Structure formats: structure tokens, C-alpha cells
Amino acid sequence: MLEYVAKRLLWFIPTLFVITLIGFTLLVNSPGDPLDLLVSSLNSRQGTNGNDLEQQKTHWRKQLGLDLPLFYISISQLSEPDTLYKLYDQQALKTYKALLNQTGNAQAINAFRDALYKSKQLFNRELQVVKKDSAQALRYMESSHVILANLNVLTLQTNPEKNQVSIQTILSHSSNYSSPFIEQIKLLQTAFQTLKNNHTVYKNYIPKLIWHGTANRYHRWLFGSSYSKGVIRGDFGISYIKKEPVMAIIKHKIIWSLFFSVLSIILAYAISIPIGIAMARRPHSKGSKLTELLLFMMYSLPSFFVGVLLLMLFANPDVISIFPPSGIKPIEGYPDGASLLGKFLESLPYMILPLVCYTYSSLAFISRLTQTAVSQQLSLDYIKTAKAKGLSNHAIIWKHAFKNSLLPLITVFSSIFPAIIGGSVIIESIFTIPGMGLETVRAIIAKDYPIVIAVITLSSLLTMLSYLIADVLYAWVDPRIRYKK
Predict the structure, then answer these.
(1) Please, which of 201, 211, 295, 390 could form a disulfide with 364 given CB 3.0 to 4.6 Å?
(2) What's the pTM value of the predicted model, to 2 decimals?
């Protein structure tokens, strides 16, 4: 058994790799631009100008590793430059790839883009000089609008004929500008002609394998760097919206989800097993029939209905106001110097209704499952033999029938256990519990994908762990179960 567990733990390593790879793939392919999400709130709150905004984007691009290749290796076209991943702007990247498909000449494209960038720089300097003279500013206003519009068009346009027209238009409106600017536009025209006349399209059809080494986004996301500790050490990066470490956000939320989920599982098993056994012992009694009907109704009721009903009945001043309607602690907070037990007792009234809501459905299901499993065991021959030997009903039920009925209960546990990380969105919303369910939904709506990926990854790890625990419990409950080495 120990050897089997050790082998399963070793298999966790490649499984963990696959899980993190899937999570990373979802993260990098999620809709929206993380840089826009990170700097948008800063821009709205502080009125950041364009230069500051670009500096913020540069900072976060470095912080998130967006200036690195995606993976250890990449497969591309022979015409594609090895550093294309550094072109982060999606529209500019789309234009570059369109030009690459047309020409297959990355060197000529880079020369054209460099000439266009220098042309824009010189044009901005020209405008600064002209703005100092109001008379000149009026004279240059019309031409400057035309030149700026065509320079911007050249940045994104890929049609050769239209690009030729744009460059000619810039030249025809730049006669009043300085000679360095005019010369730069002529160099831009030359670079464009070189790009237009020197095609190496065949390179687009030759594959190329590029090895990036460990300097890639996945390696950094998984193992960390000077900017982060990595997923393998519990660092899932920065929240796009809150700009805080993801684990710092999850840590405060997951405590309550774990508390309610784990406690509800314990209560469900502790209450439902005796009920199921009692129903199995007297299957045709009126009490069992009534209990079956009650369990069926409990299992059929949706959690949002039960939650609202509990609030209306037991947290309503107009009916019965026994429990607080929302929250997990008093509004004024815990008393100064309160112990852990004192804090628990203060929060206890707030926990009763949510726990009922968390537990009732599982309780009904596990009770029926226990009844069915124990009833099947009670009809077998070894139970009749035990009765013939004079064993007490208590020994027959608990030492034989119930122990052999545990396998389906363990299976249910292995499927319920991984869900504790995600909490319950509906129950947390109704009772205003600051748990992971509500936080996950908010993260999805706000496109805060690092939090979503963290929840998915942690749930996957719990799933692996729960299956291992279930296998061990199977062998412990039934000695006939043996795992091959």
C-alpha cells in the first residue's frame, strides 16, 4: 500500500505540470488586455496623462513578464523574427503579421517600421517648434492634420497602393517643414519601396523551431523570479483589478468557505448516517416512510429558496428574530482582546442559518445513500449467519453491515471534497458571507483572471488529493481491495 501511495504521489508531478499548463494557457488566452485592466482604474482615479499611462504599462509589462516568450520552445515561420513576442500591442502585431504574410521579409518590415517611428518623432518636434509661433501655427494647422493622419494610417495599413498614396500625400504637404523632416520622409519612402519590391514569401512556408530556455512566461509563472515566487510556492501573481497578490486576496476569503464547507460535510455525515441506518433497519415503518418523504422534499428544494425562507422565518422581526440576517460577525466587530473561543461564540449566531442551508441537501442525499447501501448488506447471507451466531443487532449493524456499506459514502466524499475551495455563490450572496464563491464570480465579471485560474488550479489539486484519500480509505475499509504495485 505504501508503495502504491508513493507511486501515486510521483504521478502527481506530471499531473501538476499538465494542470498548471492548462491554467497558464487559459490565463494567456483570456479575453481582454491585462495592461488595460491594470492601468484603467489608475487612469480614471488620477487623471493620468498619456506619458504616465505608457510608463505604467511598461512597468506592469515587466512585472507580469509580458516582455518574455510564452513557453520554452515555439514553432514559427522562417520569415518570422525570433523577438516578435516583444511586440505586445495587438493591433500593431496584427499589422506586422499581415505585412509578413505579404512579403516574407522581416528585415525590410523592420526597416520600414523604424523609418516610420523616426518620422513620427521628427514630426512631433516640428509641431513643438511651430506651436511657439502663433502665426506659423495657423499656417501649419491644415498640413499638420493631414501629415499626422497619414502617419497614423501607415502604422496600421497593409495595402501597398494605399501606403504609397499616404507617403506621397505626406511629401506634398511637408514643403514648409524643415529639411531633416523632409529627408526622413524620403527615407521612409525608400524603405517602403524596398519592402514592396523585395519579397521572400517562400520563407512563410518553412517552419522554424526556437528554443527560449527558462527565460519565458510559463517558467516564470510556475517557478517564480525576482518579481514573484511562482505558482509552485503559492504565488498566483497580481490581481488585475485590486493590484494585490492573488493569494493575499484568496487567503482572507477561503477561510470562511473552508469553514462552512468542511463543517457542513462533517454535520451531514454525522446526522445522515444514523438516519440512514435507522431507515434501513425498519424500512416499512411509518417513521421510515415519513422520513423518506421529508428527505425527498429537502433534496428537491433549491438552496436559494431555503436560504430566503430561513431568513424570512428566523431573522425577520415581523415573524421570529432569533438569528442575525447577514454577515459573519457583529457589525461593531469583536470585543478588544477577545480570544479565539470568544470570537467563535460571537460569530456562532451568524453561522446557524448558513450551515443549515449548506447542509440540508447533502444530508438528504447521504441519508438515502446510507439507507440503500445498508439495506443491500442486510439482505446478504453473511448477515443471516451473524444473526444465527447470536450477535447483537448493534454489532451486526455497525461492525458488519455499516462497514461494508462505506464504499459509496467514500466515493461521495471524494467528489464533494474538491468543491470546498469554491464555496457557494448563492448561499454566500444570500447571507453576505465573504467567501470564495462570491469572490470568484466577481473576478469572472471583472475579468480578473489570475484569481479565477488560482481557484481552478487549487480545485484541481484538491481533486487529485481527494482521489488518493479515497483509494486509501477503500483499502482500509475493505481488506479485500489490494492495489497492484
Answers:
(1) 295
(2) 0.77
